[in-house]
Structure formats: structure tokens, C-alpha cells
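Is this the right way to post C-alpha cells for a design question? Let me know if I should format differently. Anyway, here goes:
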């Protein structure tokens, strides 16, 4: 068969177009449909997982969904991995999941009921499952933290594993942040040397949504500032030499961009040590929305300067490039 020069040129053009669309494949933002906030993102068994709050009215926040992906681009929804029907003390406002794998079990820490005083039932609970997608059942039959300590509302938990293998619960709303040493089966806490269970580590401007990771031996402590229903919600950070700080606020690294979205905050970080990449997963409000709960889950790159300072995150509509875990 004979080809004319023009048809060969057309074919070549098509091949190069196909190649360029392949190489620019991006996740887009948000990464999945629906109102979802407070995402806790991680890697299990070479898959990415995101555990968000179902961002509806308090009374409708009675379950949690999770999402998994092989490449950060295509996300599979896992419906109702945890439900208040499995947690008899929880009846609304299931918030801000924090996931951790330990001894072949998956533990999902969550806030419930949005308690306003020690007289109310609720606080931080923990659920357990054999697989990342659940089903999760209540681990304790009661909250793990059900009172205010050092002024911290028992919400917005993060589970941090230190270098020595010790797990800590770092949590708190109402502008106070506590750290507490978890016991081996996550059924309670071990006292610190001074006998205290809850040590306050609140940095300046802290509001809620704590997150911690280690990089080059330093402890990066991050948190959300501002009001979560408004446009100025944001994320700031500090760096310390231990999980207890002291943490001196360095500055904001995530905030609204009036041309992209408002209220960018309550985040987590996917760290791929082998590839040296850091992806920040956070929620934000589309420019068309003002309802507090109309929050979507997004992903962007997080980068550092030569001194280990976190560079301000550029929030995008395009999201990030495809990346496998390995
Ligand atoms: O989603 C409910 C609350 O909104 C969270 O607990 C806060 O951190 C804020 O993101």
C-alpha cells in the first residue's frame, strides 16, 4: 500500500498528539466527586488511600467513605467503610478520619458528635478492620478521648509513629493541640514521665487539623488556621527536634487563591520516600460555593527549599501528574 506524504505527516502528527496527551495526564482537582473534607491520605500495599469526612450537615455525617488509587489519577470509591450503626455512642458529625496500619490491622480514628462540653457524649473514637476498605467496627465500645483536656476539643486526631515505633495521638480543636502516648493496642494511653497523659504542644495561631511527619531527622508539625467555614482557612507549620516541640510557627504554606478556590486547609501529606515526592491532600471550597460544608478534596505538590523549609503550595485545577507508588 502506498501512502502520500500528507497522510504520513498526518499520522506522525497524530502519534505525537497521542504521546503528548499521555505525558500530560493529570489528576485534575478535585480528585473525586462529592463534598468531602479533612482528607487523611496514605499508602497501603502500593496503593494510595484517602479517608475524608463526608461533608454534609452534622446530622447526615453518620458514615465515612474511602477512596483508593494506583496512580493518583483514577480513584475508586469504597462506600460506608464506617457507619454510626457500628458505633453505638456516635450519632452525628463523624469527622476527620486518621488511618494507621499496625500488626496487620487497620485502625481508623475519628471524631464524633462535636461535643461542646464534658457533659456530652462523644469525642475521639477508634475503629478497626482487617482491610483498608473495612468494614470497620468500634474498637472500644466507647470514645478513646471523651473530655476536654488543656482546653482542646476532642476532635481532629492524627496518629503519628515516631522513629522508635511509639505511636502518639496528636489532636485538638478550639485552638488547643495535645499529644498523648498511645498504648500497644490503642485502647488507651501511657503516662509521660511527669504522670500526665495529655501534653499541650499548641503553636501560635493553631486552630485545628494537626499533622506531623519526619524529614531529615526534623519533626514537621502542620495545622489549620482560620475558620473552616470561611475563605481564610489555611495551613501553617513549624519544625522541631522532637514530637513535643517546642514548635515556633514559621508561616503559612497553603491558603486560598481567589482565582482557583477558597478555604484551602485541613490537609495530610503523601510521602513517597523512594521517589522523594510529597503530595499535599487537602480540602477547599469551589469559587461558586459559600456553604460551609461544600468542600472538595484536592491534591497538589508540596516542595521544600534547600534549607528544608516548605515552599508555599501552588493550588491548581490540574492537580498532579500520574505516579505509581513503585
Ligand atoms: O469537617 C468538620 C471540621 O471542619 C473538622 O473537624 C475541622 O478540622 C474542619 O475542617
Amino acid at each position: 500500500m502506498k501512502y502520500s506524504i500528507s497522510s504520513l505527516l498526518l499520522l506522525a502528527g497524530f502519534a505525537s498528539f497521542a504521546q503528548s496527551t499521555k505525558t500530560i495526564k493529570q489528576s485534575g482537582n478535585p480528585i473525586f466527586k462529592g463534598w468531602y473534607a479533612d482528607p487523611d491520605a496514605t499508602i497501603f500495599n502500593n496503593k494510595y488511600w484517602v479517608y475524608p469526612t463526608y461533608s454534609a450537615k452534622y446530622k447526615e455525617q453518620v458514615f465515612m467513605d474511602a477512596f483508593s488509587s494506583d496512580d493518583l489519577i483514577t480513584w475508586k470509591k469504597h462506600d460506608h467503610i464506617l457507619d454510626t450503626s457500628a458505633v453505638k455512642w456516635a450519632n452525628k458529625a463523624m469527622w476527620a478520619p486518621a488511618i494507621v496500619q499496625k500488626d496487620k490491622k487497620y485502625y481508623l480514628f475519628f471524631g464524633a458528635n462535636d461535643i461542646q462540653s464534658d457533659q456530652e457524649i462523644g469525642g475521639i473514637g477508634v475503629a478497626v478492620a482487617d482491610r483498608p476498605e473495612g468494614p470497620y467496627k468500634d474498637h472500644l465500645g466507647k470514645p478513646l478521648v471523651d473530655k476536654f483536656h488543656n482546653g482542646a476539643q476532642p476532635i481532629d486526631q492524627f496518629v503519628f509513629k515516631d522513629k522508635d515505633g511509639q505511636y502518639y495521638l496528636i489532636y485538638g480543636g478550639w485552638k488547643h493541640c495535645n499529644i498523648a502516648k498511645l498504648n500497644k493496642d490503642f485502647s488507651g494511653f501511657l503516662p509521660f514521665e511527669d504522670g500526665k497523659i495529655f501534653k499541650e504542644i499548641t503553636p501560635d495561631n493553631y486552630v485545628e487539623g494537626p499533622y506531623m511527619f519526619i524529614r531529615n531527622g526534623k519533626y514537621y508539625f502542620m495545622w489549620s488556621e482560620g475558620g473552616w467555614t470561611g475563605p481564610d482557612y489555611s495551613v501553617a507549620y513549624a519544625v522541631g527536634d522532637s514530637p513535643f516541640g517546642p514548635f515556633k510557627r514559621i508561616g503559612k504554606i497553603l491558603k486560598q487563591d481567589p482565582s482557583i478556590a477558597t478555604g484551602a486547609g485541613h490537609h495530610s501529606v503523601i510521602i513517597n520516600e523512594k521517589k522523594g515526592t510529597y503530595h499535599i491532600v487537602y480540602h477547599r471550597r469551589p469559587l461558586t460555593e459559600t456553604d460551609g460544608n461544600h468542600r472538595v478534596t484536592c491534591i497538589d505538590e508540596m516542595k521544600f527549599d534547600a534549607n528544608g523549609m516548605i515552599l508555599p503550595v501552588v493550588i491548581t485545577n490540574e492537580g498532579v501528574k500520574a505516579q505509581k507508588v513503585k
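Format looks fine. Someone answered above. Worth noting: Residues 37-38, 53, 95-96, 155-156, 208-209, 224, 228, 266 surround beta-L-arabinofuranose (CB under 6 Å). The longest helix spans residues 5-23.
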